[in-house]
Structure formats: structure tokens, C-alpha cells
Predict the 3D structure of the following.
Amino acid sequence: MPSSSVVFRFLAEPTDVNFGGKVHGGVVMKWIDQAGYACAAGWSGHYCVTVSVAGVKFRRPILVGQIVEVEAKIAHTGKTSMQIFIQVRCGDPKTQNLVETNHCIISFIAMDETGYPVAVPPFTAVTKEDKQLENYAIKMKEIAIETETLLHKSAPG
């Protein structure tokens, strides 16, 4: 059975920050994408591509020297897609007391060697938390589809 989660832990470095001394949102998004990819590739056994990121809200800044934890877990699978719940936490490395900075759902598609989508193993939510995350992931996927449809209906031309 493939692993359904991945955890990255590291220190926020001076090269990660903006002029205000806080980690760039774009750097955090890179970490989210990397952890999500590692989780998706591990689950599917295939190369995966990012399709969308939904529900990102930055709740608190990450500072240089803080320990950062990026946890990615499978929340829902379709035929070729995986919706992965990502939670980012940070805190003082001496106490290891971590608080959430943000979370989101990132969607990936598994691809074969020729670039075509391939089937992924189904994920079955078992625990109450898994079921809540799956419901959240399904809702975020629906919202992403609705948003894309609205864009195409509203676009000029």
C-alpha cells in the first residue's frame, strides 16, 4: 500500500524572506507544491503535474530561523487525479511548538511516460478526520470547477 502522507521539516533561511523579514508567499507556495508532488508521486507511483491550488489563505508569517513543517496528505482521489490537503506550520526550533500558518488543497494528475493521464490507486477515508478532509477536498474541487466555468462564461470574445 502506498504512503498517503509526506512531511517536510526544515528551517526558514535568510534567502527565503522578503524585505519585511518574513518568508515570501511564493516560497511557501513552492514548498506546498514540492510536498504535494512528493505525496502525489508516492501515492500514484507516477510523475504528477499540478492542476490547481484552492483555498490558500496566509494566516501568520514565517520568520527566519523558525522550523517549518509542510505536511501533505491524500484527501481524495478521482480516476487520475489526487486532491492533497497541505498544512504548513512553523515555530521555535527549541520548543518544537508549531502553529498553523496556512493550509490548502492542491490537485495533481498522474501522468505516464508519454504525458497522458493514468489511473491512480483509490483512496478510502477511514477516520473521522480523513472523512472531513475528503469532504473539504471534494467541495474545493467543485469550487475550482465552478470558478473556471465562470471565467470562461465571463471572458470577452
In short: The helical segments are 25-44, 128-154. The chain has a mean pLDDT of 94. Strands lie at 5-11, 47-54, 67-77, 81-91, 98-111. The chain is about 30% helix and 30% strand.
